[in-house]
Amino acid sequence: MSHYTFQTRLLHNEHKFDRATGAVSVPIQHASTFHQADFDSFGEYDYSRSGNPTREALETAIAELEGGVRGFAFASGMAAISTAFLLLSKGDHVVVTEDVYGGTFRMVTSVLNRFGIEHTFVDMTDLDAVAKAIQPNTKVIYMETPSNPLLKVTDIDGIVKLARANDCLTFLDNTFLTPYLQRPIEFGVDLVLHSATKFLSGHSDVLAGLAVAKDEELAAKLYTLQNSFGAVLGVQDCWLVLRGLKTLSVRMEQSQKGAAEIAHYLAAHSKVKNVYYPGLADHPGHAIHFRQAAGGGAVLSFELEGEDAVRRFSAAVQIPVFAVSLGAVESILSYPPKMSHAAMPDAERNKRGITNGLLRLSVGLESPDDLIRDFEQAFQK
Ligand SMILES: Cc1ncc(COP(=O)(O)O)c(C=O)c1O
């Protein structure tokens, strides 16, 4: 069915209907264990941590959409990311993009370090800096593009070339764009990671993580880790992500259109110091971004004068929910310094440009005109 467009494949795939019953929704298989005829005969499934048909439906769906060989569903984005890091061993080193998601920063700096896994943070918009950060023991280069919360763009192809020349793997957190807009495996990335809590499920009602491996060798290793660590996604939540996936393209299109309109509005506003959105022609990563992605996405951030201005603006704004998270049907406004990036010490945050005036907006499905009117009344206050 791969001759269909992405939009059609979201609906017309292997799980279009259940082979056993014709049901047009993937059945939720609650069983934790599966009957065996005797101790020598194992069926397709034996125990749900090791394999479950509902989870497998989600895992095959995401693998197909990302263009990888195998997908893995985890209890959260952080469970996917943390399990992927278990591919590393004591004495290994990882090069990480400097404005990485706060939870990933915490995992690298306060958990992996205790197991003897070293790290270096670099500005991944600078390929020379990445090349210099690579050590003989570097095993992974970890990307997030566009990054959270400053929407910096990494040249995926450039990083993959560097990684191959130095015999290391590449991981990429594709949460912000989803495979609808960016498919990193097509550029040679080895492992794609997701907080499926965000756009993939899309309704602020499930925590989930996904990983997709480019090749069988890596997939086999990750499968062993998924089964060993055991942070698998429950079946009800797998079903919710599968349902969210069906509307991914329409949600992304509408939200992205709104984000572009709002980014232009904010960029022209006297009370806004900076707007970070790769869809804006003057974004420093604009050209690279559009070589590797099909759109600017639905997340942007913008900088006001300082914490006081943020406090007044966020108290006056009516439509977006003020919350951590992103990628939902409702617009979500958040304050990275005290929310998604609270795990990052102040000095590290400021060094990265995540200032006390920064707000992040994930645009939902409301009318962009209503959102702009709402923002304007908030600025007036
Ligand atoms: C880019 C990115 N990666 C990973 C995560 C972690 O995902 P989860 O909250 O599902 O564990 C988040 C959460 O906000 C995120 O924004």
TrEMBL record:
Q: Which GO terms describe its biological process?
A: methionine biosynthetic process; transsulfuration
Q: Which GO terms describe its cellular component?
A: cytoplasm
Record-linked InterPro entries: Cys/Met-Metab_PyrdxlP-dep_enz, Cys_met_metab_PP, PyrdxlP-dep_Trfase, PyrdxlP-dep_Trfase_major, PyrdxlP-dep_Trfase_small
What cofactor(s) does the depicted protein rely on?
pyridoxal 5'-phosphate
Superkingdom to which the source organism belongs: Bacteria
* Lyase as UniProt keyword: yes
Q: Which GO terms describe its molecular function?
A: cysteine-S-conjugate beta-lyase activity; pyridoxal phosphate binding
Query: One of this protein's Pfam families, by short name?
Result: Cys_Met_Meta_PP
Recorded hits in NCBIfam families, A to Z, give: PRK08064.1
Identify the PANTHER family for this entry: CYSTATHIONINE BETA-LYASE, TRANS-SULFURATION ENZYME FAMILY MEMBER
Q: Which family does it belong to?
A: Belongs to the trans-sulfuration enzymes family.
Listed name of the protein:
cysteine-S-conjugate beta-lyase
The species this protein belongs to is Domibacillus enclensis
Q: What is the lineage of its organism?
A: Bacteria, Bacillati, Bacillota, Bacilli, Bacillales
